[in-house]
Amino acid sequence: MAGTGPASPKVTTVSLRRMKGRGERIAALTAYDYPTALLLDKAGVDLVLVGDSAANVVYGMPTTLPIGMDEMVYHTKAVVAGTKRALVVADMPFMSYQPATEPAIENAGRLLKSGAEAVKLEGASEPVLERIARLVELGIPVLGHLGLTPQSVHQLGGYRLQGRKPEAREKLLADAVGLEQAGCFAVVLEKIPASLGKEVTGRLGIPTIGIGAGPDCDGQILVLHDMLGVFEGPGYRFVKRYAELGSRIQEAVSDYCRDVREGGFPASEHSFEPDADR
Fold first, then answer.
1. Which residue in 71, 117, 137, 190 is the catalytic one?
2. What is the pTM of this model?
3. CATH of the domain at 143
4. In a domain, 241, yes or no
5. Is residue 29 a contact partner of residue 227, using CB atoms and an 8 Å limit?
6. Residue 88: its H or E element
7. Is residue 238 included in any domain, yes or no?
8. In angstroms, rounded to a whole number, what is the distance separating the alpha carbons of residues 146 and 124?
9. Which residues pair with 118 in a beta bridge?
10. In a domain, 169, yes or no
């Protein structure tokens, strides 16, 4: 009967490529726990990334480098539990794939066994392309990542705009083609000129997902805590803050503390009588 099927079919790596072909934009966000993933999924996010940015926004670390596989597996399981429609991608943390292909296979396998449907690797060096091709050969979908690659922050000299000069633009274009040829189903483009984001998007048959890469990418992704304003601070140019939850949470907790100290909570409606069970 017409209309009895699911209103929002499960998002897959294949359907993302079809979205690019139809000109439909891909909405992606990060998540690190069950309740957040549940909300993102219900809101219609297409791709949920269990980002190694958890190092920053969950653990308070200055870079993504310290987070390891055990933490990524833990967060992946939590996000998968809250996700039904969106494609769940898990970051491969620093040094989980760089040293050799066999550890990369083992670590990617751990993330898929934890419920992730794909993994993300940064860069397009010859060793990384080799790892990606092998993972794809084994049936593990891979999301690429070019431009500002946070795991290489020290080599890049900080969180700087990438692809400024002609030779850097040409290299990034070549790297993007290399990722597609290695089998990536999509590629994240981070902090590059908008014109370069447009050029890469037009060059590739796979979707591009931008974060500070301009409006012409096939999709966009942001770190959830940035777009919700969970933390104070200047933020990044490419972030649009859709809420200021940090100040609202702080205000709510301050009200709670005041109520507790002044005797306003718990009131009678929050207390039990002998004949009450709820």
1. 190
2. 0.94
3. 3.20.20.60
4. no
5. yes
6. strand 87-91
7. no
8. 7
9. 89
10. yes
